[in-house]
Specification:
This is Aspartyl-tRNA(Asn)/glutamyl-tRNA(Gln) amidotransferase subunit A. InterPro entries: Amidase, Amidase_dom, AS_sf. It is a single chain. By secondary structure, the chain is an alpha/beta fold. The protein has helices spanning about 10-25, 90-95, 140-145, 160-170, 200-210, 240-255, 265-270, 275-295, 300-310, 315-335, 360-370, 375-380, 405-420, and strands at about 35, 55-60, 100-105, 150-155, 170-175, 195-200, 225-230, 260-265, 340-345, 380-390, 395-400. The longest helix is centred in the C-terminal third of the chain and has 22 residues, at about 315-335.
Length: about 425
């Protein structure tokens, strides 16, 4: 897809005003998308002449924006002082002339793949009425899908950019972790967190990633234009509708001449044995333990229960987890051999909000939606979810590559996007 951006310095002020007006209408569709709007004055003539100048941007409420309090989806941080400076990636986008709309809603501390927030409400899925948006970057995905923002900046610890992208019919990109600075971004897991964009197309994600990347980042490892589908991971427990749509996507790619093989990847079998939950549980407690100890009653109970699991880990088990992951990454990269791992982003359609009232269903579905995307985080890779619609059934098709393959993966994904984007993305009835 060519870089035919719809934004400009000349239209930024009007588009921002229109967005603020739509949010102020507070309809069921727009409610709970933002936790706060930014009210800075916009001077279009002061914006620099760059490819991103005038683009409307929403920011996950996990990253600092100068003059505003970052709440990270919590109540216990709601009265913190306003940020004294922008997070590094926000600063880079400001220098590019981006126009910031507001902080978007999210799962508390980014600790789930479903997107619910009991404190600030949960935004409704933009494509599936009455269904969850996916998380943890829930409001960010909905803000792009509804046209409030040209792109959003969020984080991804186990799929939090790709899950909501898949559920809302947009593109989500998890870059290699080291490519973007984490200064000014509250962590969930320092081992697994990545910062990246969601947008309506690959071209925008590519431009944004280049803008927020650290100086000198090349990420020039080349992917081979070949797909491998793991036969031992990621394609079981699939909703029949998702399975059918994924099969159609595979057929379309094969018609275009792309090589697609199915193989057993032993590294993914070994990954199943890792206590991956320790990363978020232990590392989030290390950062937020004072609040967890003194103000636990202010936490989302579901988040608190997961943080409490840190007490089940020991220094030895956590160190063993770190060592096992360090050994697994090169083994996975050797098996992948610079090819692209191809899986459905999530194996189900977005569930109805009402299903989430049951704690057992919540826990089961949370693990299920995180399963496939988490591979890229544990294996220290980069990954992208593309929307695909088959006979009105909307899914995400996920492309995952090895660490530092970002640029090559994005360029390849732009070609795949063309092959997959021939059908419209209609709204449909909620899943059961």
């Amino acid at each position: 897809m060519t870089e035919d951006f719809s934004w400009s310095r000349d239209t930024a002020a009007k588009r921002l005003a229109d967005t603020r007006q739509r949010v102020a209408e507070d309809t069921a569709e727009t409610r709970h998308v933002f936790t706060q709007l930014f009210c800075d004055d916009l001077l279009p003539e002061a914006l620099p002449d760059t490819p991103l100048s005038g683009a409307l941007v929403s920011i996950k409420d996990l990253l600092d924006v100068e003059g505003y309090t970052t709440r990270a989806g919590t109540v216990f941080m709601a009265n913190n002082p306003a940020a004294e400076r922008d997070a590094e990636v926000v600063s880079r986008l400001r220098a590019q002339g981006c126009v910031f709309v507001g902080h978007t809603n999210m799962t508390e501390l980014a600790y789930s793949g479903l997107g619910l927030n009991p404190h600030y409400g949960t935004p409704e899925n933009a494509r599936f009425p009455g269904c969850i948006p996916g998380g943890s970057t829930s409001g960010g995905a909905v803000s792009v899908a509804l046209g409030f923002a040209d792109f959003t900046i969020g984080t991804d610890t186990g799929g939090s950019l790709r899950i909501p992208a898949a559920f809302n019919g947009i593109t989500g990109f998890k870059p290699s972790q080291s490519t973007a600075s984490h200064r000014g971004c509250y962590p969930l897991s320092r081992s697994l967190d990545s910062i990246g964009p969601m947008a309506r197309d690959v071209a925008t994600c590519r431009t944004v990633w280049q803008a927020i990347s650290e100086p000198g980042v090349v990420a020039s490892r080349q992917v081979r234009p070949e797909f491998v589908i793991p036969e031992n991971f990621g394609t079981d427990d699939m909703d029949p509708v998702v399975a059918s749509a994924f099969d159609t996507a595979i057929a379309k790619l094969q018609e275009q001449g792309y090589s697609i093989s199915t193989e057993r990847l032993s590294a993914l079998d070994r990954m199943k044995d890792l206590a991956v939950w320790q990363f978020s549980a232990v590392e989030s407690r290390a950062v937020y333990n004072e609040a967890f100890t003194l103000r636990k009653d202010e936490f989302d109970p579901r988040v608190a229960s997961r943080m409490a699991r840190a007490d089940e880990a020991t220094a030895i088990s956590y160190r063993q987890l770190l060592d096992a992951r360090a050994a697994l990454i090169p083994a996975f990269e050797a098996e992948l051999d610079n090819r692209i791992l191809l899986m459905p982003t999530v194996p189900i359609l977005p569930p109805k909000m009402s299903v989430m009232e049951d704690d057992e269903a919540y826990s089961r579905l949370n693990l299920l939606v995180l399963r496939n995307p988490t591979v890229a985080n544990v294996m220290n890779g980069c990954s992208l979810s593309l929307p695909f619609s088959d006979d009105g059934n909307l899914i995400g098709v996920m492309l995952t590559a090895a660490n530092q393959s970002d640029l090559s993966l994005l360029d390849f994904a732009a070609r795949i996007e063309t092959a997959l984007a021939e059908l419209a993305l209609p709204r449909r009835s909620p899943s059961a």
